[in-house]
Design a protein that fits this description.
6-stranded mixed sheet; 153 residues
Length: 153
């Protein structure tokens, strides 16, 4: 009887690939914030470390950019522009509620971000898909889609 109970507990622990959805939600929320903080500070190394090798980013006016080898340099250019425009330290991102859904080794975060640069503010809706693999247990950004609504103040 004890052996059966132990086997049942082991099987239950293995359900969902060993992912604790509640803990994962907290981890994904922290990664969303880490990404934006790093981007706002033009911290290229941190931003690139959060990307999955197969990342796909939807650019509202340009279509999709695919693969870390392509997306990484594009993101780096955007952060270089922040430095050149002297916006590092003047840019900040605030968040509305970050909604996270977890299914095994995939998590989807959808949220509203308020991006402030000096007197300007842009509101954006982001959806980011994160994944982790057996080979790489860190959660990384697999896909990103966003849309902006610019507001001048």
């Amino acid at each position: 009887m004890k052996k059966s109970a132990c086997i049942a507990l082991v099987l239950l622990a293995g359900c969902g690939g060993g992912v604790d959805p509640a803990a994962t939600k907290v981890e994904i929320e922290a990664l969303v914030k880490k990404y934006h903080e790093a981007f706002d500070q033009a911290d290229v190394k941190t931003v690139l470390d959060l990307l999955d090798p197969a990342i796909s980013i939807s650019r509202p006016t340009e279509g999709f950019v695919r693969g870390k080898d392509t997306c990484g340099p594009e993101l780096e250019k955007a952060m270089t522009r922040l430095k050149e425009q002297n916006k590092v330290g003047k840019r900040s991102t605030l968040f509305g509620s970050i909604h996270v859904e977890v299914e095994g080794n995939t998590a989807v975060a959808t949220y509203l971000a308020f991006i402030r640069e000096d007197k300007d503010q842009s509101n954006a809706i982001f959806t980011r898909v994160f994944r982790r693999t057996d080979q790489d247990p860190k959660w990384r950004i697999l896909s990103e889609h966003y849309s902006f609504e610019s507001q001048q103040k």
